[in-house]
Amino acid sequence: MLVQNQKDLLVANNVYGHQPQVFGWAGRNAEYAQYWRKIIKDYFAKRHTSKLFRKSIHGKIKKCREADRMAKMEAHYARY
Predict the structure, then answer these.
(1) Would you state the torsion angle of the CA atoms of residues 45, 49, 55, 61, taken in this order, to the nearest 10 degrees?
(2) Contact by Cβ (8 Å): 33, 71
(3) How many other C-beta atoms can be found within 10 angstroms of the C-beta atom of residue 15?
(4) With b meaning 16 or more CB within 10 Å and e meaning fewer, what string describes 24-59?
(5) Mind listing the pLDDT tens digit for each residue in 34-63?
(6) How far, in Å, CA of 4 to CA of 38, rounded?
(7) 26 — phi, psi (to 5°)?
(8) Is residue 47 within 8 Å of 74, Cβ to Cβ?
(9) pLDDT at 2
(10) Ordered DSSP codes for the chain
(11) How far apart are alpha carbons 49 and 57 in whole angstroms?
(12) What is the dihedral of CA 36, 37, 43, 46, to 10 degrees?
């Protein structure tokens, strides 16, 4: 699509929904871990209301730890 200026480009992107393609949380593991911590906090507060909340916390903690580990590796290898 041909656009004449920046405002037209913003309007075209909003109308046609052209967003940059990013796979999942690639390159943003620290934010991904924060996302899981927020969910864990909500589930932990509700752990007495349902057995589902209590049991599903373990899987969410596992994902959070994995994201933390990947963020640590990214930070380490970014220095070199």
Answers:
(1) -10
(2) yes
(3) 9
(4) eeeeebbebbeebeeebeebeeeeeeeeeeeeebee
(5) 899 999 999 999 999 999 998 999 999 999
(6) 43
(7) -55, 125
(8) no
(9) 64
(10) ---SSHHHHHHHHHHH-------TTTT-HHHHHHHHHHHHHHHHHTTTT-HHHHHHHHHHHHHHHHHHHHHHHHHHHHT-
(11) 13
(12) -160
Distances in Å between the Cα of 35 and the Cα atoms of 13, 16, 53 are: 27, 29, 17
How far apart are alpha carbons 11 and 2 in whole angstroms?
A: 12
Q: Which residue would you say has higher pLDDT here, 77 or 26?
A: 77
Quick one: which of 25, 23, 3 has its CA closest to 13? Answer: 3
